[in-house]
Amino acid sequence: MFRLFLATTALALPLAAHATEKADVLTNYANIAEAKYGDSLATAQTLQTAVEALIAEPSAEALQAAKTAWLAARVPYQQTEVYRFGNAIVDDWEGKVNAWPLDEGLIDYVDASYGGPSDENPAAALNVIANPSFTLGGAEVDANEITPELLSDTLHEADEVEANVATGYHAIEFLLWGQDLNGHGYGPGSRPWTDYAQGDDCTGDNCDRRAAYLKAATDLLVSDLEWMAAQWAEGGDARAALMEDESAGISAILTGMGSLSYGEQAGERMRLGLMLNDPEEEHDCFADNTHNSHFFDGLGIRNVYLGRYVGTDGSVTEGASVSDLVAAADAELDAELRGKLDATVLALGEIKTAAEAGFSYDMMLEAGNAKGEALVMGGVNALVDQTRSIEKAVSVLGLDAIEFEGSDSLDDPDAVFQ
Fold it and tell me: What is the pLDDT of residues 117-154, one digit of tens each?
């Protein structure tokens, strides 16, 4: 009995001493953010190097290297999206780097089928690359030199039109791939490398200005990511804001998880495109990379809940987690939510596997494609289902109710067609 008592005491004391503290969860969450944005910055810098090589010596190989670098850069960045919605500093900044969809005619030449200016967006076919000066919002703009400042301060969301996306990953994506004119057919955009060639080899005209735009957009992406990575480092504003109120900080984590799961990913990025049967509703539409964007968004939600992130170099950032807090309050709910997060990653992984085998995401969106609808809705349903358990986690942790981001595609489907 005496020995058993000692053993029981020896086990009980460490458990009590190591009960998960909210502050530890928030610190690990911030550490993971720092790691994710650091990886996003590093891969963007690799992209920057590839873009500089393409501009210096244009070739098919150099263009492909830049595309490969862009695809790699999306992997860590998509895993940061779970930091949106709950962290104001991320929400206020995110539109600079990942805004979509975009009216690409603002930036460069487009196919005749694209159309022209509209009442909703007079600048939809402005083609800044072809025009060193133009009128925008009633003012004359000198665009003889294409700089990061021109893109961010003058062009991005010009006239308060959200589709005027002049910066970020998707502007760069368009400049590397060009329009995807395949509709529901297989294949991404097919911009020729000669769009960056100089002299008589130049196609698409204005190759020097196209190169200048690509460089400015890439340089701006790198500087924006440098800024955000610093916000999550020790002494950074995002980390400090998170730690001000521990309960509010935990709510911020769950807000990001629930809003990305439900309204943003299940609704706006997946269910809406399927309802409209519109390949233009793809998140990475020019590169046909949407299957990866969806997958890594889902993975990002899970790794935040579990408090564990595997970096692009294989390094692991891990520690106390929301899962620990939920398990202490309701072990069954923690097991339920873990299972649903796993189910979501699996469902999104099935979309990814199918796309990599030749059944691309835009093909899945075609009206009447039962296989595609089943794959997409598998992801939608899993995301919605995990959101219900995230709501339960909010309750079991005794937090104030959270209103997650919604989407008409889920909440009021008839409104989508009105």
Answer: 888 999 999 999 999 999 998 899 999 999 999 999 99
- How far apart (Å, rounded) are the C-alpha atoms in residues 240 and 249? 10
- Residue 236's contacts (CB-CB under 8 Å, 6 or more residues apart) are 34, 230
Token pair belonging to 228: 């955000």
60-93 pLDDT, tens digit per residue, is 999 999 999 999 999 999 999 999 999 999 999 9
Distance of alpha carbon 114 from alpha carbon 116, whole angstroms: 7
Rg (CA), the chain: 23
Burial class of 125 by CB neighbour count within 10 A (0 to 12, 13 to 18, 19+): middle
CB 336 within 8 A of CB 328: no
Taking the CB of residue 343, how many other CB atoms lie within 10 A of it?
16
Buried b (16+ CB within 10 A) or exposed e, 305-332: bbbbbebbeeeebeebbbbbbbbeebee
Closest CA to 265 of 177, 390, 415: 390
> What is the chain's length?
418
Residue whose C-alpha is closest to residue 126's, from 367, 141, 36, 94: 141
For the packed helices 290-306 and 246-259, what is the interaxial angle rounded to 10 degrees? 150
CB 183 within 8 A of CB 362: yes
